[in-house]
Amino acid sequence: MTTAAAPLLIDVRSEGEYAAAHLEGSICLPLADIGARIEQLVPDKQQPLLLFCASGVRSDMAMRLLQSLGYSQVENGGGAGQVAMRLGCAVVRG
To answer: Is 53 an active-site residue?
Structure first.
């Protein structure tokens, strides 16, 4: 029996927003930097990725960009609060 790999949680908000509050276990990769830095941080294009931001708008743009770069398992989780509730993640306050 195989189990699906847990997705890597990627917060595409700004570094300042991330510092103020973020989901435990997530990494900060702002939308403005994601295209230039994703292959360095996530070389496996089959790695499941769960993107989120404040409302889901930036994470949707990031998802489309990553899909165009060949990442095949990318999901827009929407807002950070939605992801926290869905996965039971703790919120770390700055």
So the answer is: yes
